[in-house]
């Protein structure tokens, strides 16, 4: 919706995280496509790593992405940090485009997402998993979509059910 966290808010959030009494902390970047704000992500990882060293804490990062903004240059930069990518893909092209259609007219959510970037993502060595959301109207294709994602070469798939949707008793089964 156009809202973007400013750099100072990000820094204050990391500062608050460092005030935790935990020795290990984690920050997650999400909200639409987090990597669209690439410079902010870079600043957050750099600032977070500096602060965790100053506070003698271990920090991990999780970045949620639909893959549209992922490229080799970003992966090369990210792999020097303790990052995990949570990648959105609900299944085959028909399922992806039905339930996660592009907000940009004329764009294809499946073609521009992670399917054709799977090898590049795996080769990066960055920890990653696919988050596959199952919608009530697509539950009959759940096994097919799961194996489709696995066949793309993603070693770990988390299956979530769509929240806020009405599930019939049959769909729940």
Keywords summarizing the entry:
19% strand; alpha/beta; single chain; globular; 5 strands
Task: Write up what this structure looks like.
The protein is α/β, with parallel strands linked by helices and 173 residues long. It is 37% helix and 19% strand. The protein has 7 helices and 5 strands, in the order H-E-H-E-H-E-H-H-E-H-E-H. The chain has helices at residues 7-18, 38-54, 72-78, 93-99, 118-124, 142-151, 169-172; strands spanning 24-29, 58-65, 83-88, 127-134, 157-161. The protein has a 5-stranded parallel β-sheet, covered by helices on one side. Helix 3 (72-78) links the parallel strand 2 and strand 3. Helix 1 (7-18) runs parallel beside helix 2. The termini are far apart. The relative contact order is 0.12.
Helix and strand arrangement:
Layout: H1 7-18, E1 24-29, H2 38-54, E2 58-65, H3 72-78, E3 83-88, H4 93-99, H5 118-124, E4 127-134, H6 142-151, E5 157-161, H7 169-172
Parallel strand pairs: 1-2, 2-3, 3-4, 4-5
Helix pairs in contact: 1-2
Mean pLDDT: 94
Distance between the termini: 35 Å
Largest sheet: 5 strands, parallel
Uncertain spans, ≥5 residues at pLDDT below 50? none
Rg over CA atoms: 18 Å
* Count of beta strands: 5
Strand residues, percent: 15-25%
Supply the helix-strand structural class: alpha/beta
Residue share in helix: 25-40%
Categorize the overall geometry.
Answer: globular
């Amino acid at each position: 919706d156009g809202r973007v966290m400013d750099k100072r808010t990000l820094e204050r959030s990391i500062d608050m995280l460092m005030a935790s009494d935990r020795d290990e902390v984690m920050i997650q970047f999400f909200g639409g496509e987090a990597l669209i704000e690439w410079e902010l992500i870079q600043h957050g990882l750099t600032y977070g790593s500096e602060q965790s060293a100053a506070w003698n804490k271990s920090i991990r990062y999780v970045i949620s992405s639909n893959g549209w903004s992922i490229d080799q240059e970003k992966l090369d930069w990210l792999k020097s940090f303790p990052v995990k990518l949570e990648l959105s893909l609900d299944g085959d092209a028909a399922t992806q485009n039905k339930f996660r259609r592009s907000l940009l007219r004329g764009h294809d959510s499946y073609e521009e997402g992670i399917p054709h970037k799977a090898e590049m993502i795996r080769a990066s060595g960055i920890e990653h998993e696919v988050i596959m959301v199952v919608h009530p109207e697509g539950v009959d294709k759940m096994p097919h979509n799961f194996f489709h994602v696995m066949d793309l070469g993603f070693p770990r798939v988390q299956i979530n059910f769509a929240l806020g949707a009405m599930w019939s008793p049959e769909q729940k089964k």
